[in-house]
Amino acid sequence: MFLTVGNALTEKQLADTRKALALINWRSGKETAGPTARAVKENDQADLNTKSGKSLRDALKKIIFLNPIVQAYARPARISAPLISRTRNGGGYGLHVDNTVMGRGAEQVRTDLSFTLFLNDPESYEGGALAIEHSGRTHRAKCKAGDMVIYPSTTLHGVEPVMSGERIVCVGWIQSAFRSADQRDILFDLENLKTELAKSYDANSPEMLTLAKTMGNLKRMWMD
């Protein structure tokens, strides 16, 4: 399953991100790819090691981590330092599976879920869809600026060639408090049910209290 999070960035956050990117240098994306992925990766990555780069990286990391839909769906325990990728001139990223672990030391995360946050409009480039292989099908995503796609890091996925214009996205990985995708899906369904029931039932009603108890006990059983 993959999920699209609409308006993960507000218009102001998106404008601030673009303004910051205008001041940042780019380098080959192969520098951060593993041995297998390096052979199929043709893109650039923003240098986020400068003062302004670190500020942008930290801001995006906080926004993504605190997004209420990310919290409900991914149940993040940790999130990687995000990367910003630019693809153009026929570049892309062939099918690959993400490394099991990303980052080092205190920044290390187990890659349960991957995310792609789109930073420019799909009309500004040709091609460049995110392609995710799942259950015998290829799912493609090419979202509007500010939208984000979350998908299992266990899947084969890639970026189709960008034939004109340029595709700019923020990517990263989430270590969930719950290893099992089935468990995360159940909790997400219950969270959505809770939101709907709250329209008709008081928070202290037997129905809402029972649901809160059930969700809490499931978390105790399943949480790492």
TrEMBL record:
One of its GO terms (molecular function) is dioxygenase activity. InterPro entries: Oxoglu/Fe-dep_dioxygenase_dom (IPR005123), PKHD_hydroxylase (IPR023550), Pro_4_hyd_alph (IPR006620), Pro_4_hyd_alph_FE2OG_OXY (IPR044862). It comes from Ponticaulis profundi. Transmembrane segments: none annotated. Residues 78-176 form the Fe2OG dioxygenase domain. Keywords: Dioxygenase, Iron, Metal-binding, Oxidoreductase, Vitamin C. SUPFAM superfamilies: Clavaminate synthase-like. This is Fe2+-dependent dioxygenase. SMART domains: P4Hc (SM00702). Fe cation binds at residues 96, 98, 157. Its cofactor is L-ascorbate; Fe(2+). 2-oxoglutarate binds at residue 167. Pfam families: 2OG-FeII_Oxy_3. Binds 1 Fe(2+) ion per subunit.
